[in-house]
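User: Teach me something about this protein's shape.
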Amino acid sequence: MTIITEKQIQTQQRRSLTDILTRQPGLNVVQTGGPGGSSSIFMRGNNANEVKVRLDGMDINDGSSASGAFDAGQFVTDGMGRIEILRGPQSGLYGADAMAGVIDITTAQGEGRFRPFVRIEGGGYGTFNQTFGARGSKGRFHYNVELSHYRMDGFNNIPAYIERYYGANRQQRHEGNRNDNRGANIRLGYDVTHNFDLGLTARLIQNNNHSYSLYDLQSESLYGDKGVREQNGQNEAIVRATAHLVSFHGLFDQVLGLGYMTNRNRWTEAGTSYGSPINPDPDYYRSSRLKVDWHGTFNLRQYGQLLIGAEHFHDTFNTSHTAADMWDSGYNTSASMDTTAGYGQYQGNWNHILYGAANIRYDANSRYGNHVTWRVAPAIHVPGTGTIIKASAGSGFHGPSLYQLFANQVGVGYSEKGNQNLKAEQLIGYDAGVEQKLLHDHLNFGATWYDNRVRNLIQSSVSVDPSYNYTYSYANVARARMYGVEAFLNWKALDTLDFNLSYTWTHARDETDGAELQRRPRHKFNFNTTWTPIRDLTFSGNILYTSAWRDLPVIGSETCSTCGRGHGYFTIDVAANYKVNRYVSVYARADNLLNRQFEDPIGYLQPGRAGYGGFMLNY
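Assistant: First, the predicted structure itself:
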């Protein structure tokens, strides 16, 4: 498990969730279109939609997307107090979509006196960010409220070789993307009594992303289209309320929760083709999720802890598009599903030497059936040595999305239809590792081997009738195996100097044909250091190396998803923070210091060298 604290996020000045996750072992984050572009999080070589993401106990994978994966592209880190990364199959406790792992985010809680703040930041690619808010507590009431506005304008993500291939003119070469993100992050709490409290968290996101990609350049250069530009608009709200009660002098701790999430996405493509608008009516993708949950923990003292819980989800999905002409028939598809689950987990230890956890869960889904998942995780703490030997084994599953089940887009020569006979993907995974602590716990290092096998992988399929009408759908067609090693070393050399290294080796292949899985680099190395030479002055540096990977080629054949080869890259980032006095702090950072030009994924250039700076006023 990896824990990222609010202090680490602030020291490294990582403003987006994609930026902080990119630097973590076992994860590969792919983002199209630069800041604000859509993103995918691959964990231990598994697909991005097999990673569950939670915010304050609410499941927030995107039900409005085709795959159901979480998109971190528009999530800023403001207000985040803690991020936990749990690797390996976690469905035994967290259910569907957690078969690769879980990313659990917690909003920071306000404590102490009233502390308002304002942070202003500017820099490369037209960046201008503003954040303000306040946190603290008053009597039984505690609060944390933050409002933010992030803006980027002028980033061109098309690589030069693609511009040359399609003969881009000056205007096309200088066409830049624009991203505008507004957000609100809220956490409120009230201690009704010494053992009973109420909580409310909310995260609201409104963004507009205007992009010009290689496919827009392709449309203009090859087909004569004019003024092609993509526009994405998103409105997302995540709200959760809790009631927390501790009974019997701490022997029983229980939480009752009610959560709601809604996503409204609007996509359109501006421009003309043969004098007519390319997409006169936008495509709409909408989803909602209602969650009711309860869990209780029995404190058995020296005999460990017993957790039991139950959850119910109601998910809805709608996608629509109004017919524009005789070639465009339009569509309007709605669907829903319900999931009811119960789970239990026991954790305990024997003489502080043998530790263990075991869980089991039952999920009943109205669309893809019932599933039982489990996980066991023993560990041995060798007395007097600082050595920990650990292992785990578990099962997981990922259900098809409502889009994959019920899509119904029919046009002339082209259609996309869901497959209501899809089965859930299933995984069996194992890992084993060792950790060692030395120098009074100032030096900590270790390594973990993992091995995951997946069956019933859901992949897209295509069929062609005698009239050359193409029908795209989904099918359970593949098996895959992902195995590798994650290693780390953390050294606190001085009270003011820390070093952190991590290395990941990933081998991920489709077992039906032996091909490498798309966008899974074999090697990843990350080095981070934090130095505080004098009080109130902190420096942070980061080196990231990612090796080559297989991907979809963007020039030539575009039907083979792994025939392209992405070039490996490394970046160097530095940051500095200085607290002038109790009211004023200033900071600066430089990303991609050596100005490495790299794509990830192929066809989408990532930002080159850029500097940023700003100040924060607080009271």
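Now, about its shape. The chain has a mean pLDDT of 92. The helical segments are 6-12, 17-22, 91-94, 160-165, 170-173, 214-223, 402-406. If you'd like, I can walk through any region in more detail.
User: That's plenty for now, thanks!
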